[in-house]
Amino acid sequence: MPVLEKTKQALLLLGILLFATPTLNAGPFNAQIIAASLEPENQGYLLNADVKFKLSPTAIEAIEHSISLFWIIRLKLYRPQVFFWDKKILDYSIRYRLRFHALLNMYQIENMTSGEIRRFFSLPVALNAMGKIRDVKVTEAYETDQFEMLLATLQVQFDREALPLPLRPVAYFDSHWDLSSQILEWLVQK
Amino acid sequence: MARAKVKIPISLLALILFGLVLLSLQLMSSATQESSRLSQMYSWLLLVNALGALALLILVGINSYALLRQLKKREAGSRLTTRMVTLFVLLTLIPAATVYYFSMQFLHKSIDSWFNVEIDRAMEDALELSQASLDDRMRWHLRQTQQMARNLKNKSQISIILDLERFRAELGASELALLSRRGRVIAFSSANPSEILPSLPVEQIWLQMRKTNDFVGLDTIRDDEWVIQAVVALKSDQDQYIQVIYPVPVRIADLADSVEFAFVRFQEMTFLRNSLKLSFSLVLSLVLLLSLMAAIWVAFLIIRDIVAPVKELVKGTQAVAEGNYERPLPVMRQDDLGFLVKSFNEMMSRIAKSRDEARKASQEVENQRAYLETVLSSLTSGVISFDADFKIRTSNQAANVILHIQIRRFYGKTLFELAREHSNLSELALGIQQLLEKSDDVWQQSITVLGSKGRQELLCRGTVLYSPEGERVGGVVVIDDMTDLIQAQKNAAWGEVARRLAHEIKNPLTPIQLSAERLQHKLSPDLDEKKAAILERSTQTIVNQVDAMKKMVDEFSEYARAARQQIENVDLIALTKEVLALYTLQSADQFIVDFKSPLPKIKADLVGLRQVIHNLIKNALEAVANDGKITIKLQSIVEHNTNYVQFSIYDEGIGIKPEYMDKIFDPYVTTKEKGTGLGLAIVKKIVEEHGGSISIDREVKHGAGFNIKFPAN
After folding, report:
1. A16 to each of A7, A11, A45, A128, A153, how far by Cα in Å?
2. Which bin fits A105, alpha (ψ -120 to 50), beta or left (φ > 0)?
3. Which chain B residues have a beta carbon less than 8 Å from that of A117?
4. The pTM is what?
5. Contact, B381 vs B364, CB < 8 A?
6. Among A69, B42, B144, B522, which residue is least crowded by beta carbons within 10 Å?
């Protein structure tokens, strides 16, 4: 059914274009996904991404006052459908914690998903290291046909709810705490 | 079938609301504790509470708006509700605002008191002390490791590997590893036999190693266990490295952790100082707002419930004021207000009963009055009643007809005012007024009135009305129009005179005339010419005068003759045309006719009616004396709900002198030199025999006019 396939692809492209427009409205302290790729692997995919984290002065001050900040890097895979909502076939997330270790006088990045801890003497180096996501293996929940086109979305979400309690209400209204990225969408072919 | 509406009691509703508000606030209060599981729901709870407060605010706003509208419309109970709500809000707001103000002050000051320079410095010093302590230990372990490296410098790799366990034990390390330049593990010894792989240095350590050949640092392994990691190059060309992991004594580690934890908490709190104030203020404000709004809303509900019976009472009194006693008020409660409503209902029912009785009595009185009025209005005598101040109270229709005015217009006024407006009735009005004021008993007086319809002879009888207590409460005057009666008496008298004249005078006339003619016939031949002429002249005079007397007596006979009528339906237009035809041969141009046909027929004696028309036309012709127009009108009119056919005749003659106006229809009254004065008297007699009436048209200014009315079929 080549005609149906072409129609689906055209609709998907249109959808991507529509979804891509919000990236134009990115805030000054949003994280930016510079590049992302999803390479098929045996039973799943290998995720590689470069994220540029920008912290607002308030966020930097919070870090320096030993407040932990949390981000969630969320990858989703959808099977596009013409007449219904796209069907989600994968929802994978990596949770990062960034904190200043006062005793060590170092910035510590903790991958809460894998338990890996890395420490750095400077904040930019720590942020840079956190932004490099390399060969993260993700497995899909549903079987997909070979050569099927899938829609991948990646977003870096800043977890406001993990902030200390008094900061939470403020964080929803202060652009200095708007540290999430826009959603990046791209097509993946298995 | 009507569906039963389940009404939740207000007290239960208020309890549920306050329960929900308290639960919500309690949850939020618990959530403010970081340790609480609810802290994860803090934002949601805050949002839910804020939405709840907003919803209550909207509810209060809607209620306030509704109350304002009711107040503007001046609805029953709205002012009482407003006063109660205002009072309640003031009573609630003043203490709440006071508590809120001082709580905020206390809160802000308390938070500020947590922070001061000394504590800040102490915290930093404590951390620095911990760091210094750990630094000393790290430097010491680095020196130990460097010493070990120097000792191993000249040893072969095999002997190092063989003695690795011993070296580790000598150093008191938990882990000792021999690493290649690329970070590959050559040999490894651990105090924990279960560990098969060492903790390898991270990228950063290798980078530093390239610069300084050694590294020492603090790290954590396995459940945040503090260790000191020392890496030293074994050979000068940096081919091999040894990594030693030294355990930090538990006591030192715990102290360091404790200090760091406290420092971190303090740092956090310092950063969150303003946020804390804001957050607590927000929660406190929310608590206040929620509680206040909930209290005010419940106050609205309770006050509305309290005021409802009062509102019903106000509506009830308004209904009573409008005369509606039938709707009993619903008794919604069993308290004092309910008792009040019950009493009100009872009172209304009694009033309604009394009103019905009063209405019934009033109806009876009204019926009596109407009956009396009907009787009075049916009377042919005019009746006028007066109050104690001699002001006119009531009158009947006959009084209006007799006096030719609407007496109703003068109700509540005295007869003086009536006399002022109707000057022709002034003599009558003033006479009655005087008699009313002066007489204490029944009085009677005849008064002549010159009205628009001519002279009227009125017989007035009056009496004073007294109350059962003997007080003078008014008077009644009965007026009878005696004009027709007097006229009939006059006519009867004249008829008697005529009959006597005919009988006593006409009989001797013929012998007189015959004797005069015989005298002339017998004596004339014996007398000379001169004397014969005198005799002839004298006898002729006697004969002429006897003829004249005969004629006069005949006319009297005619006047006095009893009516011998042959009644039939007469078309007055046709009859008038027939009579006119006799006159139009001589003077056609003199007559103007205006017949408004169709005209109903009248029941009349044709002969009598013809004589009436003859007499009137003759009378008019004599008045104009061949020099003036005569107008004859025939039309149908309605007076006092009765149909009449009106015959009107107008001439442009000399008219009727005012002194003759009231007696022109009497016998022997004439304005002409040759007239007998019986023409109009006969006309009047015939007209009245037909149930009609004749009158002078007093509005005619030039000449004379007569209107004759016959009842139509």
Report:
1. 14, 9, 21, 28, 10
2. left
3. 220
4. 0.54
5. no
6. B522
